[in-house]
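We examine the record.
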Amino acid sequence: MAWYWIVAIVIAGLFVLTFTVYITNADMKLVEKIYDKLIAYHDKQIKEEKL
C-alpha cells in the first residue's frame, strides 16, 4: 500500500471522528462533566472569609 493511501485513510478517519463529535455535541457534554466536577471540588475547599 502506498504511503498516500495511508495518509488519506488517516485524514478520512479524523474527519469522520470530528464530524461525529460535532453532530452529537460530545465536546460540550465533556466540558459540562468536567465543569461539574470542578464546581464540586472547589465547593469542598475551605474558604477564608475575611471582611
